[in-house]
Amino acid sequence: MQNNISIQRGLKEKINRYFLSNPYTTYRDAAKEIDCSISMITYYKDPIEARKQISARSGKIEWPKIFRFCFEKRKPYANNEERFTSLRKKGRTFIYACSGNKKGETYMNKKEKLIHKKINIRQCLNEIWPGIEVNEKISCQSVHPWTKELDYDDKGEPIMSPYTRSTLTGEIINAKSTKTEVDHKDGNRFNNHPTNFSFTERFANAMKSDLSYEQLYENCKLVIKNYERHGK
Fold this sequence. Notes:
The chain has 232 residues and is mainly alpha-helical. The chain folds into two domains: 68 residues, no CATH class; 137 residues, no CATH class. The protein has eleven helices and four strands, in the order H-H-H-H-H-H-H-H-H-E-E-E-E-H-H. It is elongated, with a radius of gyration of 29 Å.
């Protein structure tokens, strides 16, 4: 791929024409005649080898993560505009082991890995709102994700579906929001038992990843300790 300077000077064409007329000349002599660097001659005469040398000198091979940080353009973040979906669809992401299929994955081969068989969406939703039906025609009160007692907001009003309390932050969230995600409490997405079903914010779920609550807690203590020592 040519850069703008190379295109403006027509170096690729000049180099190719020069070697057609002078096939046995050295790269050093050619560079003097064409008025360019030897590396430019090498690049257009043997681009594969030249790219290897460039990669080696740039640190791309030895330090790929640092190279990507410095030079590669990051893909734009996904659209974070909030949308809303059904609780039934949120339940399916838990039942199906994940919301989308990775390369080579299908619903059937994921289903085979599930620990518990014949679990349905209603059972999962009832862990959050006892008595709720999948059609959501009747609103039901949420239970606290830790105490499992009927939950109320700070004003003493019952928290009704689709609202519930985030298992991780304790904030009241709308479970239908795309900024709310289903979380497997123990970090194992193939443990599809209803008691492993919970809701939390997207950012909190990203922090937790495949960790258990205990592992997340210990990691957060390390971050807090380091920040309190150096960040303030």
